[in-house]
Amino acid sequence: MDIVCLDMEGVVVPEIWIAFSEASGIPELKRTTRDEPDYDKLMRWRIGILKEHGLGLKEIQDTIATIDPLPGAREFLDKLREQGQAIIVSDTFTQFAMPLMKKLGYPTLFCNTLEVAENGEITGFKMRISDSKLNTVKGLQSIGFNTIASGDSFNDLGMIRASKAGFLFRTTDQIKADNPDIPAFEEYDDLLAAITEQLD
């Protein structure tokens, strides 16, 4: 049996940190996993910048409330889920993702949790599991699923390569150049067709 594992940001919703960077006027926060492969390092750096500017969870959630899924994402997910099981596997956090999941019809989401002080300051984060995307597909494979994966960033490459089929979606030219053997798509219809072809 097949199960599709999709990255969230950049694939079905805009990059939350880029949106918050623009809303807060802090250009450094535009840095994402497309730029920094080490997620732990990236998050600790982001938390430091938030602290420096006196910003917390509420300010980020206010920005998230203004974000809509990428055009066509809801329809893509609906069509995909008509054909089989799909899970969004993300390094984001429940406190960020749930308002966006509502707009996508509440697909299954595996992600992480922020540690937040009573005053709303983000003090840390708790990862569900180390190297979560790769270990999620390995876990699914260990209970009898074949995985098909798609994402756009460095931290998606592990789950893409460990799956029976994997695809890049709206990724950077650099990631495409570094991984020429992974099919890359820009449109949902093309990604859906490629996934459908792999489904048993």
Q: What can you tell me about this protein's structure?
A:
The chain has 200 residues and is of the alpha/beta class. It has a domain at 2-13 and 70-112 and 128-198: HAD superfamily/HAD-like (Rossmann fold). Helices cover 44% and strands 20% of the residues. It has nine helices and seven strands. A seven-stranded mixed beta sheet has the order 4-3-2-1-5-6-7, with helices on both faces. Strand 2 (85-93), helix 5 and strand 3 (108-116) form a beta-alpha-beta unit. It starts with a strand and ends with a helix. 36% of the residues are buried. The mean pLDDT is 95.
List the helices and strands and how they pair.
Layout: E1 2-6, H1 16-24, H2 39-53, H3 57-64, H4 73-83, E2 85-93, H5 94-103, E3 108-116, E4 122-126, H6 132-142, E5 146-151, H7 157-162, E6 165-169, H8 173-178, E7 184-185, H9 188-198
**Morphology:** globular
CATH architecture assignment of the domain at 2-13 and 70-112 and 128-198: 3-Layer(aba) Sandwich
Number of helices: 9
CATH superfamily of the domain at 2-13 and 70-112 and 128-198: HAD superfamily/HAD-like
Distance between the termini: 7 Å
Quote the average pLDDT.
Answer: 95
Largest sheet: 7 strands, mixed
Q: Give the strand tally.
A: 7
CATH class of the domain at 2-13 and 70-112 and 128-198: Alpha Beta
